[in-house]
């Protein structure tokens, strides 16, 4: 059995500029970090004479004979893209809920691709995995998504990413001392609002509004460099929190679906009890709210939000990894037996 894991991510600045509808004309950028919560995908090659060729366990259990009949769109397209012919069991689970602004869909896609490649004795690099995930989500499934989540899941770490018109991107690692990184990490508070949503639906309203919100997207893109400079320039981290507040003010004006009264009330409550700024992660509409707190104020704010689920985290987590667990050494023999049998031609 092969197990791949890919991290969730937190995006601080630049969201919106990672959509092709924007960066193909203007270029784009984002500042984000992978965190130490993960999506896990296990893949097991099984005997070809089992009843159904594919078994996929997610929120439902699928057992089908043909790839085209698989309901899970990413699994179906990944098997097709890699031209997988082996019989397979595929299982998925994640540390955090899906549809919550943490990039879970792309983390799943990247982890699945890595596991499937490993099952075929292939070892693509991080760039290849990110590009394959983008191809599946953008081209095969026609989802309205950006490209930052796939990059974060594949590469991991804490990154400043610049996107050129056309989609070519370059990654600059955010280089902080261990003490600076800990100081930064101690300022973060991740709060679950309890609301899930389909990111692509929320994103469509933002993308269709780009003509009206051009100045806001440009400002959000500029903040990427400013945020990076605050971190590496050893400026007061309060400045990062204040910049994050400005970013949220810009983001929530991109479309009416980004926020609501409940989310706005939560944010204002956070500001009153120790937060300098924050934002709703992902496309908006629900999911996780990230607060950046004043020094030494995280415990106080956490007590004020005791009705919410608070998720501990560490930034700069590693990207996708693959491990082998009790590999089925009989897989090749099974295939040889099957190919020689009378049933293989039926």
Per DSSP E runs of 2 or more residues, the count of β-strands stands at 12
Named at the architecture level, the CATH assignment is 2-Layer Sandwich
What is the global morphology? globular
**Spatial separation of the terminal alpha carbons:** 28 Å
Q: Which percent range describes the beta-strand content?
A: 15-25%
Share of residues in helices: 25-40%
> Mind describing the biggest β-sheet?
8 strands, mixed
Uncertain segments are 342-346
* CATH level 1 name: Alpha Beta
Rounded to an integer in angstroms, the radius of gyration calculated over CA atoms is: 21 Å
Query: Which structural class matches the secondary elements?
Result: alpha+beta
Question: What does this protein look like?
Answer:
The chain contains twelve helices and twelve strands. It is α+β, with helices and mostly antiparallel strands and 346 residues long. A hairpin with a 3-residue loop joins β3 and β4. It has one domain: 2-Layer Sandwich (Ribosomal Protein S5, domain 2). It is 39% helix and 23% strand. The strands form two sheets. Strands 1, 2, 3, 4, 5, 6, 7 and 12 form an eight-stranded mixed β-sheet that branches. Strands 9-10-8-11 form a four-stranded antiparallel β-sheet. The longest helix has 19 residues, at 214-232. It is globular, with a radius of gyration of 21 Å.
């Amino acid at each position: 059995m092969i197990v791949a894991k890919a991290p969730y991510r937190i995006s601080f600045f630049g969201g919106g500029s990672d959509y092709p509808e924007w960066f193909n004309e203007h270029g784009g950028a984002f500042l984000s970090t992978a965190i130490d919560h993960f999506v896990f995908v296990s893949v097991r090659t099984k005997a070809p004479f089992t009843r159904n060729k594919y078994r996929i366990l997610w929120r439902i259990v699928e057992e089908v004979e043909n790839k085209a009949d698989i309901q899970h769109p990413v699994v179906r397209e990944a098997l097709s893209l890699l031209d997988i012919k082996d019989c397979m069991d595929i299982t998925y689970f994640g540390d955090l809920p899906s549809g919550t602004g943490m990039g879970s869909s792309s983390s799943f896609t990247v982890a699945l691709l890595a596991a499937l490649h490993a099952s075929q004795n292939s070892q693509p690099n991080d760039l290849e995995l990110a590009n394959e995930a983008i191809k599946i989500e953008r081209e095969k499934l026609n989802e309205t998504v950006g490209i930052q989540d796939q990059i974060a899941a594949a590469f991991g770490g804490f990154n400043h990413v610049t996107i050129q018109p056309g989609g070519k991107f370059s990654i600059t690692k955010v280089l902080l001392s261990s003490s600076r990184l800990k100081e930064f990490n101690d300022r973060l508070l991740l709060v679950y609002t309890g609301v899930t949503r389909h990111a692509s639906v929320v994103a469509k309203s933002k993308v269709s509004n780009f003509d009206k919100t051009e100045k806001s997207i440009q400002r959000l893109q500029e903040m990427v460099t400013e945020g990076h400079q605050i971190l590496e320039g050893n400026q007061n981290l309060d400045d990062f929190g204040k910049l994050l507040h400005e970013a949220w003010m810009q983001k929530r004006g991109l479309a009416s679906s980004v926020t609501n009264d409940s989310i706005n009330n939560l944010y204002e409550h956070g500001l009153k009890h120790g937060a300098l700024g924050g934002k709703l992660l992902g496309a908006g509409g629900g999911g996780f709210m990230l607060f950046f707190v004043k020094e030494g104020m995280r415990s106080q704010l956490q007590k004020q939000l005791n009705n919410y689920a608070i998720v501990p985290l560490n930034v700069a987590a590693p990207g996708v990894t693959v491990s082998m667990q009790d590999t089925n050494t009989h897989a090749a023999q099974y295939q040889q037996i099957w190919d020689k049998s009378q049933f293989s031609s039926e």
